[in-house]
Amino acid sequence: MKIAIINGPNLNLLGKREPDVYGHQTFEDYYRSLQSQFPEIQFSYFQSNVEGELINALQQFGFNYDGIVLNPGGYTHTSVAIGDAIAAITTPVIEVHISNVHAREDFRKISHVSAKSVGSIIGLGLKGYELAIRFFLVLQ
Question: Of 30, 65, 75, 97, which residue is the catalytic one?
């Protein structure tokens, strides 16, 4: 089974950025723990602060992977193009957000990717990535 994890803007700063909201663990450390927890899965990981690079990654993984776990960060609320990219690919996508975006600013309640994704996991911290992976394992 092949699963891609794609993280959007500012997620490279996990562990440093607003630790009261996002925690103290870096994503790289968490990613290694996911690899250990799920040795049967071939993971690919991509992070970018650039919208077009995220779209390129969706297209790269979107026709030959079993699942994509996507945290589009702030682009969730602004990028019609990322939503369109999800609609254009055949690999199912689960939208993940570490924080509860619905408990934050009003503009964060809008998602251009939720309707194109098979599901969304919001506000459960990094655990949301693991839950998304477990969903794909059930689909297998």
Answer: 97
- Residue 22 catalytic? yes
58's tokens:
């969706």
Known active-site residue 97: yes
Catalytically annotated residue among 22, 30, 75, 129: 22
Average pLDDT on 22-51 reads: 94
Q: What is the DSSP letter of 14?
A: T
User: To 5 degrees, how large is the angle CA 49–CA 50–CA 54?
Assistant: 100
pLDDT at residue 103 is higher than 90: no
CA distance 128 to 115: 18
Rounded to the nearest 5°, which phi and psi values hold at 122?
-130, 130
> Can you list the domains of the chain with their CATH numbers?
2-139 (3.40.50.9100)
